[in-house]
Every structure is written in structure tokens, then in C-alpha cells.
Amino acid sequence: MFPTTSRLLSVFVLVSLALLGGCASLSPYSISEATLERHLQDTVSDFDRQQLQSGSPLSLNLSNADITLGPDGRDVAVIDLRGQVALNALMAKLPVDIALKVEGAPVYDSEEKAIYIRRLQLLESSIDSPFFKGDLKPVTDTVMRAVAQMLETMPVYRLDEADFTQRMFGMVPMDVRVAPGRLEFIMAE
């Protein structure tokens, strides 16, 4: 039997990537924690700007997005978010400092060519405002739904179509694997 066209294209792309990068790049393409952190902060900033332009009274500003990949050898990402949520109402801004620590599984969406964090669990939460300070446990379900919805729709990383290597990776069936300190693109099984 002859191989299908998509199989031939996959093989061609992988061979091309190996030849272009030389022998040293036979290891998988990977994304560091720092790259994911920068991308997440940029994505949240863009999301906030779009929400405000569409008339939303809530604004979100991340001051810190710390991502730890593969803690204790597990296939998860731990995201420690710190920032401020503000309600812009009646000519006043009511800021609330928040801190959330969540854990989830990095998942690659081949159609979107993006990595999302799914199956989230809340590890820690706190809030500090003029009206309340302490643990968010009383509103954990609401907070987790909001965070889960945000991370379900906003990728922590998207392949850069302008970069030849990343564009080639987007053309073949890929998946991500969690390694300590990085995510690695691997061939999908």
C-alpha cells in the first residue's frame, strides 16, 4: 500500500525541520516557562483592552503570572496569578487585589495551533480590598468558573505563523508534553 499524501507531507516536514536545524535540533521544539508567562500576560492585557472597549465595567491587570511546568515530575502546569480587578462604576474605580494559584493540564489544540490550560483546580486564593481581606473560599466556585473560562478561551501560547519552524510544526499532527521547566512539541500518536 502507498502512504497517504498527509503522511508524506508529515514526513517531509519533519525531515525538513531536522535538516534545517542540524543535528542539535533533533530534540523536540520546546517553550520555556518564561515565554509562556510573557505570552499569558500579553494575552490577558489584550483581553482586558477588548473588554473595556466593548463597554465592560470590569478591568483586569496582571502584575505577575508565574508558571511552573512539571512540578514534582507531574504533567501539569501551576499558574500563580497576582493582579488587580477593578469595577469601573459611577465615575469611581473600585480596585481589588487578587492572588490565585491554579493547576491544570496543558493541552495543544491543533486547529487553533495554540496551547490551553484545561482541567483546572484551585490551589490557593486570596483577595485584598478596602471591604474584604482574606481567603476567597466563600466565592471559590465563581472565581474558578471565571478563571477556567478565561484559560479555556485564551491560550497560554500560540504558534507564530510568521516563524518558519513554528509554521511547519503547525502543519503536522503535534501534541505537547510537559517536561520540567518547559513544554515540548511531539508527534501526536
Automatic annotation (TrEMBL):
This is DUF1439 domain-containing protein. Pfam families: DUF1439.
